[in-house]
Amino acid sequence: MRQEDIWDADAAERYDTPGVGMFAPEVLGPTVDRLAALAGGGAALEFAVGTGRVAVPLAERGVPVTGIELSTAMLDRLRTKVDEAALPVVVGDMATAVAPGAYTLVYLVFNTIANLLTQAEQVACFRNAARHLGPGGRFVVELWVPELRQLPPGRQATVWHCEPGYIGLDTYDVLRQHVVSHHFRFGEGSGAQVFRTPHRYVWPAELDLMAQLAGFELESRHADWAGGEFTAESRNHVSVYRLP
């Protein structure tokens, strides 16, 4: 499964859920507030900008935002919201593509670094972020904490979300640190739609080592965008790395 094939026009349309889910004000508000503060009056670069869920409201806050995006279908959806002048985007892989300009902030939200399926690609992503930043520049990564404690011996899958009409299930390959997320959507009939996305899961400590290899230092880690304390029970984290 190649990322550019997964995120096609149908996936881009399903991704946008205005006002609910990831697009709910209580989710987006703290995200945009924190990123605007971290930009510190400079410009921001979003890796895997997608349909502009975060970039559009951040730009509306007055932060100049540029994006890098691999999926042309996701970019087409973004262009129904803002034009190239308002939010320029470079088409390419976030681990290697270079955007023109100078930035104080590079950010990567909603687990997207895990879309890079090898450790080498994830390290390259950190180095690409550093390439776009000057001294004191920050790289922000939002990522989930692998739920391997949910896997007893012999079990290879976890159900991480269940509600009427939807089940989210992850299958793990612990030898390769790979996980495939299966999204099942169904109505009143017997049929169901399945959407699958592969990931390489990363522990916070491994992420910190990747950051060190790229010249970053860990500045802060919280459980959410609002600054909640990160603990052993946290399911997600927002990690801020800074260049000296």
Q: Quick one: how many beta strands?
A: 11
- Protein structure class: alpha/beta
Measured by DSSP, the beta-strand proportion falls in 25-35%
Largest sheet strand order: 3-2-1-4-5-11-10
SSE run: HHHEHEHEEHEEEEEHEE
* Inertia-based shape: globular
- Average pLDDT rating: 92
Helix content: 25-40%
Question: With helices defined by DSSP (H or I, 4 residues minimum), what is the helix count?
Answer: 7
Main beta sheet: 7 strands, mixed
Radius of gyration: 18 Å
N- and C-termini, Cα separation: 38 Å
Instruction: Report the uncertain regions.
Output: none
List the keywords.
about 240 residues, alpha/beta, 7-stranded mixed beta sheet, 4-stranded antiparallel beta sheet, globular
Short description:
This protein is of the alpha/beta class and 244 residues long. The chain has helices at 3-6, 9-15, 25-39, 55-60, 72-78, 119-131, 204-213, and strands spanning 44-47, 65-69, 89-91, 103-108, 133-144, 157-163, 166-173, 178-186, 192-200, 217-222, 236-242.
Summarize the SSE layout with pairings.
Layout: H1 3-6, H2 9-15, H3 25-39, E1 44-47, H4 55-60, E2 65-69, H5 72-78, E3 89-91, E4 103-108, H6 119-131, E5 133-144, E6 157-163, E7 166-173, E8 178-186, E9 192-200, H7 204-213, E10 217-222, E11 236-242
Parallel strand pairs: 1-2, 1-4, 2-3, 4-5
Antiparallel strand pairs: 5-11, 6-7, 7-8, 8-9, 10-11
